[in-house]
Design goal:
Largest sheet: 7 strands, mixed
Low-confidence stretches: 175-179
Strand content: 25-35%
GO molecular function, one term: ATP hydrolysis activity
GO biological process, one term: DNA synthesis involved in DNA repair
Protein name: DUF2813 domain-containing protein
Radius of gyration: 23 Å
Distance between the termini: 28 Å
Number of domains: 2
InterPro entries: ATPase_AAA_core, P-loop_NTPase, RecF-like
Number of strands: 23
CATH topology of the largest domain: Rossmann fold
Length: about 450
Amino acid sequence: MITRIEIDGFKTFQRFSADLRPFVAVVGPNATGKSNLFDALKFFSRLAQVDVRQAMQELRGEPEELFRQTPSGIQTIMRFAIEVLLPIRGIDDFGTTFETPAQRLRYEIAIEIRESPHGIFIIHEDCRVIRAEDDRMAFRTLEKISRSGRKTPFLETERDTHGRARVFTIRQDGVAESGTSKRGNPLQLPAAEASRSALSTIATSEFRHLYALKKLVAGPQFLEINPSEARKANDRFEDKRLKSNASNLAASLAEIQRLSMTENRPAGAIADISADLAMLIPQVKSVRVLDNAKNREYSFDVEVRDGVSFSSRVISDGTIRLLALLVVIDDPNREGILCFEEPENGVHEGRIPELINLLRDATELQDETGDYFQVLLNTHSPAVMRALRSDEVLFADMVRSIPADNKYSQSRTRMRRIAPDKGLFDDEHHLYPAKVEELLRNKAGGI
C-alpha cells in the first residue's frame, strides 16, 4: 500500500504531500483537484509500465497541459514521491517466489519537458529503504514491519559534473552492499534522454524489492464503470481481473465463484456478494453466475425478493455499479489499491453508512504477506462525509497565493486532515470538526 504521496508540478499540485492510511476518502467541492490526485496516481502507475509519452497520452488533455500552469508559463519539471509498505513475499510473472526483507521503501521520480532537444524525459529516479528512525507512517500496522539495514539505494541517478542525469543505477539484492551479486555488477541505464523509467524495465524478481515496488505501483484498479459494457456476456477466455470499465464483470464473477466454491458452499464468495448487495439494495435476494456451455460464455442475473430473476441486460445502472464494486472488495484474493470516485452513486442515502462500512472492513486486516488492501475514494457527498471517521478524511480545496516575487496569484490544490479539536488546528494542514460542518452547510448541494 502507499502510505505517503508527494506531488509537485503536476496539474494543480504545488509542493503537495499527503499521508495515507488503508482507507482514505478525499472530500471536497467540485473543481478543487480531487480527481487530479487520481490522475496523478494513474500517471504514476503507467510510468512503471510504459514510456512517458504514452503514459501522458492516456490522461485527459495534451501532455504539456499536465505540467503545472503558472502566470509566467508552465513549470517544466514535475516531481513525484511515494512511500510504500510492501508485502513480505510474492511471486513474479514466471512463477518464482521471492521475499522482500525491507517492507518500507521510498521511491522518487522527476520528469522534465525540454525545448532543446524537444521532448519529455525522466531526469531523476531513486529508491531506497526507509529506516525506522526516519519513518513517518501515519498509522500503526497490526504486524511488526520487516526492515533492512541496507545503506545503498536499490535505484539511484548518477550525475555528470554539470549536475545532469548520466545513468540510472539499479542494484540487485545481492550478497554485497554495493549491489553486486554473484551475477555481476549493478545494471546501469543511460539517463541523458531517458523516455521511460528505470522501474519500468524491471521484469523479474531478480531485483526483488524493485519488482515488488513495480507490481504495487502498476497495480491500482481505477474503477470507472460503464454499465452498458458491464452488462454484456463474456467469453470464457476473457481476462478475469475486473477491468476499469467492468466490461468483464461476468467473467470476474465466474472466476471468483470457481476459486472460492466448496462442497458446502457451491456459490463460494458469490454468496457474500449477494448478501452485501441485498444490504445495499433491499429488493435484491441473490446474484447468480450463468455458464452458457453452448456459446462458451459467462453471464449473470439478479433475483429479487419476490422470486423473479432479471438478466444483466435490464438491471439498473446503479445496481450494476454496486455489483462491480462488490466484486472487488468481496474477492477473497483482493490485493493492491482500489481508486473509486463517487461511491454514493446508485445507493440510497440511508444505505451509504453500510457501503462505507463494507469498504472500510475490506481494508482493516493485513493479509498473510503483511500487506493491506487499500481503498482511496473521492466524493462531494455530505452523506458520505458523515459516514466517515475523522482520520479517514482528506478535505480538498483550492487556495490562491501571491508569491513574493510575482504580482499574479496562483492556485493550488490543498488537502487537509481533520484535527480532533481547535486547539490542534493548523490552518494549512488541518480542519477541526466544526469548520468541516460549516463548509458542508455553506456548500449544500455542491460539496
